Amino acid sequence: MYAAATIVKPLPPELFRSHGASAEMRWDAMAGQGYHTPTDRFFVRNHTFTPAIDAATWQLAIHGDGVRCPTAYTYDQLRAMPARTLDVAIECAGNGRRFYGSQQGEPAPGTQWGLGAIGVARWRGVPLRYLLEQAGVRAAALDVLPRGLDAPFEHYGHVRRPLPVGKAMDDVLVAYEMNGRPLPPDHGFPVRLVVPGWAGIASIKWLGDIEAATRELFTPWNTEFYPEITVNPIKSALELGWNAAIPLGRPQLLRGRSWSGRGRIVKVEVSFDGGRRWRTAEHHGRHLVSAWLPWHIGWVPRQLGEQVILARATDETGATQPPKTPQHPFGYHFDAVVRHPLRVVHG
Ligand SMILES: Nc1nc2c(c(=O)[nH]1)N[C@H]1C(S)=C(S)[C@@H](COP(=O)(O)O)O[C@H]1N2
Ligand SMILES: [Mo]
């Protein structure tokens, strides 16, 4: 393994905002795109750097006292197994962290993500349930620990975070394809986990082995870095740049997307007057629980100058985006309504 740069793919400034070893998608880069986030603009969150892994010699080991027959599979063996295809969002738990500071006046430490630490891709791979069953998973198995092959993070060792066996046996994918192509290096080649609805850290990239244990497992990633973090909250974003210029008096069709790790989005409302009045946005087409809901709303800007747009979604559990998110020590799970600034200019 070697590293030329922390991220392999090009990061043109019109598609990404750089955060050192990680890169955030700019939301104006989703404008005019289809349901999925094209791979060239999908955000990257690396603890160290993207490794180069040779699929010809790579193996995935399934082991631990939670399985009766520990096994290892090659890339070709995995690709020959029963496969599933799922449209799933991967979102960093820190998505929106910047707004703790910029909107609520209490900055949270860590990567200052805007709303671009999310992407939806079509993932194809083997259900983790199938692999665990093949390995003879025991009824007493409690936790499953996927481990990445990227370089150790500081003195903490390889990136690894336990998953309860209930989630592992439910809808988790051991994915080798993203948007119809083999996974690219930055997104976990040859194989990554895809854990629907959960914080991005659960979706371990560059999988090397999976341990199944009959006891609870602990790593710095479920004790120190992401304690108590599982399902992602509800959020919305406009497919517009920050401070985008919009022409006065011309009818606009504003587009956005909303998502929630807890379930379907049932309503999206938009306010053009700072939150006094809300209009319901329209949506059509696909409405997938583990991905996002695209929506749109018409608007004719009638006043020159700076203006703020608010979008607020509600999911099927009744959860809605609050005006303010309670402060979180790590700046995770910012779910408040984001005040998106733009400028109305002479058209
Ligand atoms: N092995 C490994 N897996 C990892 C990471 C990592 O640094 N190393 N980052 C995690 C985090 S914090 C997130 S948000 C997602 C990001 O996935 P992406 O880079 O494909 O967008 O991968 C997760 N899986
Ligand atoms: Mo993350």
From TrEMBL:
Membrane recorded as keyword: no
InterPro entries, A to Z: Ig_E-set, MoCF_OxRdtse_dimer, Mopterin_OxRdtase_euk, OxRdtase_Mopterin-bd_dom, OxRdtase_Mopterin-bd_sf
Residues of the Moybdenum cofactor oxidoreductase dimerisation domain: 253-324
Domain Oxidoreductase molybdopterin-binding: 48-218
Domain of life from the UniProt record: Bacteria
KW ATP-binding (keyword) present: no
Necessary cofactors: Mo-molybdopterin
A Pfam match: Mo-co_dimer
Key words, A-Z: Metal-binding, Molybdenum, Oxidoreductase
PANTHER family: SULFITE OXIDASE, MITOCHONDRIAL, SULFITE REDUCTASE
Name this protein carries in UniProt: Sulfite oxidase
Species whose genome carries this gene: Nonomuraea typhae
